[in-house]
Amino acid sequence: MKMKIMTGLAATAVIITGFICFGIWFLSGTDSTYYYTQIDNSKIEQVESKGGVISFSGNMDYSYTLFSYDENGEGKDITFGTSKELREGAFIRLTVMPIRGVFEWKEVQYDELPAAVQKCFE
Fold it and tell me: 90-99, pLDDT tens digit by residue?
């Protein structure tokens, strides 16, 4: 009986530790990849609230789906939310994580883009 309790407590401790480690990884941005895109406001959609208490869109009023490039110039469509309409033609660096998707964006200058990405915008 004592052995079953000890095994149960050990298993619970392992599970809790796993959840904590996953939470730290999930929030930290580890394993993130940068993608670069240029704002095209013809691709913006206004997100409507569906009501309810939980908002899975992160309370973002706008959604963009733009073709984006990684540092090697490989491209794909990426969707991300913003709280405002972004400046037409601005270059944006998206920080993308597995599972989480885009969790940060930042406006950058053309000369801050990797060389392979600059070639994509010429």
Answer: 999 999 988 7
Instruction: Give the pTM.
Output: 0.70
Average pLDDT for the chain: 79
For 81, counting Cβ atoms within 10 Å of its Cβ (0-12 exposed, 13-18 middle, 19+ buried), the class is middle
Which residues of the chain register pLDDT less than 70? Answer: 1-31, 49-59
Q: In whole angstroms, give the CA distance from residue 92 to residue 110.
A: 9
Are residues 85 and 57 part of one domain? yes
CATH number for the domain harbouring residue 96: 2.40.50.480
What is the domain count for the chain? Answer: 2
Contact between 113 and 91 under an 8 Å Cβ cutoff? The reply is yes
